[in-house]
Specification:
Elements: E1 22-23, H1 25-38, E2 43-49, E3 52-58, E4 67-68, H2 72-86, H3 104-107, H4 112-116, H5 136-146, H6 160-174, H7 178-187, E5 212-215, E6 222-225, H8 234-237, E7 240-241, H9 243-253, H10 262-269, E8 283-284, E9 289-292, E10 297-305, E11 308-315, E12 320-326, H11 331-344, E13 370-374, E14 377-383, E15 389-393, E16 396-398, E17 402-403, E18 408-412, E19 419-427, E20 434-439, E21 442-448
Parallel strand pairs: 1-3
Antiparallel strand pairs: 2-3, 2-12, 4-7, 5-6, 8-9, 9-10, 10-11, 11-12, 13-14, 13-21, 14-15, 15-16, 17-18, 18-19, 19-20, 20-21
Length: 451
């Protein structure tokens, strides 16, 4: 029987619509210049500050065009789950196994709250279970067989798997597909026209969103790329959104318009003890990351799909929202420059700050050489006899691995040549030896020494 949605009945009135925005000449010049500098074919920007909303577009794209939002989808899936919490059908303390059969005793242990804060101990991804022929039953079986990478609640390890399972929990409770529940219970209430990069049954909706682009950092050439997300992974990354859509979601996080009660918004963004998302953010709540700002704590999420990079930052204390969508693989570098420019103009956007001593790094010890795994994701560290070292992530080489303080390390980004934080090595408290690596927020256990 279809789920009788009482959620919208608790928030009477018309769907939330974004306030009228104006094209801001200052923002327009800023976004156009940054898009040109980074070779990004198209971008959208919305800045809401002090009751005024300014917007800009670059690349001749419409302000309403939808961009594959990647992992920002996770924040929406978390909000969707919180709507079920508000309705009394779900609790953050519910173990996954209470709502999903077939996970087994081990994988059924993590609670919804642990999964949403990436402290559930689940693997990052399950490649073999996400091909075009994937099904919910097959995915649940693959989760059971893969097991956990660490005990639930032990520490932060970013997991697409957890959000796929959250989507299945939503389906089990509502009787709707994740797509139907997302459109009916959340997007419609926010006044957002639904768009997805993939639909049930492996159907792709290419006309519903702009194309992503692989940008060559040296030449600036941009090549269109197709989205590769599969239907089974939809709850972790299938939304396509405009910057205006992101801003509407951001205003809900500010505690304003929207179907989600303020106490659950606070729960989504409140830091979870022990959730230390090194390399991604300063803290993590139940679906939203935390970022330190000059005058307030900000919250939000980043998302990278095939050839796109999207970013959302929200300052609930002052009612500020910054939303950016880009359809180039260099969009993350554009975001970094945008944050610096907005800060220089008086808007102290919160963002994760990298260590300032990237140039003062030491060569790694040879005994770090080896393979580190998380599910089917593999990181290979190779320290050569001459002291040079590289990090290989599923075949992609990140050169010039160098150690920083506290066991963290930097590498060269292959596409841009920028020196970036690659992650950190973790030691076993009992032995003092390196037992794992945290890269991209994911904990990968050391498996073996390379020959």
């Amino acid at each position: 029987m279809p789920y009788p949605s009482t959620l919208s009945q608790s928030t009477p009135g018309v769907p939330v619509r974004e306030p009228r925005s104006t094209t801001d000449g200052r923002l327009q010049r800023l976004l156009t210049g940054l898009a040109h500098r980074h070779g990004v074919p198209a971008a959208q920007l919305v800045v809401h500050d002090g009751g005024r909303t300014g917007s800009a577009v670059a690349g001749g794209i419409a302000a309403t065009a939808k961009f594959p939002a990647g992992s920002i989808t996770k924040a929406f899936t978390a909000a969707l789950a919180m709507l079920l919490v508000a309705d009394g059908d779900l609790s953050p303390d519910d173990p996954l196994g209470e709502h999903l059969d077939g996970l087994g005793a081990q994988v059924g242990r993590p609670t919804l709250g642990q999964v949403l804060s990436h402290t559930g101990g689940l693997p990052a991804a399950l490649g073999a279970a996400t091909d075009g022929a994937g099904s919910a039953r097959r995915y649940l079986r693959a989760c059971r067989d893969a097991g956990l990478v660490q005990p639930p609640g032990q520490c932060f390890s970013y997991s697409n798997v957890g959000y796929v399972l959250t989507g299945y929990v939503v389906e089990a409770i509502t009787g709707m597909s994740w797509w139907e529940a997302m459109e009916t219970l959340l997007l419609g209430e926010l006044g957002i026209d639904a768009a997805f990069v993939v639909a049930p049954g492996a159907r792709r909706r290419t006309g519903a969103h702009v194309s992503g682009h692989a940008v060559h950092a040296a030449t600036g050439r941009a090549r269109p790329v197709a989205q590769t997300l599969t239907p089974v992974e939809a709850a972790a990354g299938a939304l396509a959104l405009s910057a205006g859509d992101l801003a509407a979601f951001g205003r809900m996080i500010c505690g304003g318009d929207g179907p989600l009660p303020p106490d659950l918004v606070d729960l989504m963004r409140g830091p979870v003890p022990g959730a230390e998302p090194f390399g991604l953010a300063d803290s993590w709540g139940l679906g939203l990351a935390g970022y330190r700002g000059a005058d307030a704590d900000w919250t939000g999420h980043d998302g990278t799909a095939d050839g796109t990079s999207c970013h959302l930052r929200v300052d609930p204390e002052h009612g500020r929202v910054v939303a950016l969508t880009t359809n180039g693989s260099t969009g993350s570098a554009l975001w970094t420059d945008l944050v610096a420019a907005l800060r220089a103009e008086g808007l102290p956007v919160g963002d994760y700050e990298l260590p300032q001593d990237l140039g003062r790094a030491a060569r790694p010890a040879a005994d770090l050489t080896g393979s580190y795994t998380n599910g089917d994701l593999e990181y290979q560290v190779d320290v050569r006899a001459d002291g040079g070292a590289v990090l290989v992530v599923d075949g992609e080489v990140y050169p010039e691995l160098a150690l920083l303080r506290d066991g963290s390390f930097s590498v060269r980004e292959p596409g841009t040549g920028r020196r970036i934080i690659g992650g950190r090595f973790l030691t076993d408290p009992a032995t003092g030896t390196v037992s794992a690596m945290q890269a991209g927020g994911r904990v990968a256990r050391r498996r073996r020494r390379a020959s």
